[in-house]
Amino acid sequence: MKVKKNSGTGKNRPADNKDAIRKKIWENPTVISKLFSDQAWQDFKADDTAHPIPGKDMLDHIHVEMDRQSTARELRVFRKQRTLKVIRYASAAAAVLLVISLSFWQFKRPNVANPAAKFQPVERTSETRDPLWSVVNNDAENIKTVKLPDGSTVGLYAQSSIRYQKAFTAASREVQLHGKAYFAVIQDPSRPFSVYAGGTKTTALGTSFTIDTRAQAYKTTVKLHTGKVMVASANINAVFNNVYLNQQGESFMFDSHTNRTELVKLSEKQTRKAMKATNIRLSDINNIPLNEVIGALADVYKVKINIRKVSLANIQYTGSIDVESETIQEALTLICLINSLHYVAEKDGSYTIYPATTNKSTIK
User: Transmembrane residues, as ranges (predicted)?
Assistant: First the structure.
């Protein structure tokens, strides 16, 4: 008996044949119609299969998966809507807070009653763009003397500036101050002299006083040396009542941040310290010969003060000196400003007073 050898390499095995058939059907589904007739398709019964198709389990699985995906979509939509709602609420709250803040700021912001009070700090230029106004800055360490158009004198302290009209009007004399300055005002009852500084308006007819806006933030201090002054609020809606200073050495403080005011009178301690053995009270000097005043200053401040080429005996001085807060240099500056004098600080710690027209090099 002859046995026919299989010359193939395993390509005709049942598993390989099934794979080849599946591949063929996949590449060309129309081959099905060639293998099975229409009648064969109609006679086929699913119950006759050896392995029934899990239709119900598959359907349940599909429904569960569809429900899960639908729930996930609804959750994403809910989270998105909730986020948008929170953003809208937050935006509305921020808008309301902004309106309230702006309203509060507008209420607290000073409304200047006079245009002269708007120029603080004074622009740092030698001349403003307005040809009717002049600006003087003092960036030096020493006090700078400024003569105003009416003849009044200003002692401008370091890091301070003033702005004033080149020609005062027939009804008023107005000055704007940023920093600290001493004012010796020429008397003119028909034209009040007003200084705008730090939310205050200080008015005088003929007197001397010092205004300081640089000592503490938001605070303006007005100190009376001679005469009388009235201090008023420079805001449209006045934040404090008018204050009158009529005692030498009195001072008034206004805090523009809190609208707090304070009227300060000389204490007994200050009065005793300002008293000399000759009964000259530096806190209340009234028509005292200037040479006696200089002598009292030398005693209180413990310094030597020389007088050259000028007689002070015939000069009567009226004013006040706060030895608690003022230095000897500040006291001498104020005295010299009023009386057309100059002083020089010598190397040995003493001071020399001489006429304003005298050059230091000519002093012997």
Answer: 86-105
Q: Which two tokens stand for residue 36?
A: 């099975």
pTM: 0.51
Residue 200: Cβ-neighbour burial (10 angstroms; 0-12, 13-18, 19+): buried
Q: Which two tokens stand for residue 339?
A: 């009386």
When divided into structural domains, the chain yields a total of: 3
Burial label, 138 (beta-carbon count in 10 A; 0-12, 13-18, 19+): buried
Distance of alpha carbon 162 from alpha carbon 273, whole angstroms: 33
Q: What pLDDT band is residue 293 in, cutting at 50, 70 and 90?
A: confident
Written as six digits, the tokens of 148 are 């105003």
CA–CA gap between residue 248 and residue 271 (Å, rounded): 11
The terminus-to-terminus CA distance of the chain in angstroms comes to 160
DSSP assigned state of 112: B
Instruction: Judge if 241 and 299 occupy the same domain.
Output: no
What are 264-275's pLDDT values in tens digits?
876 555 554 444
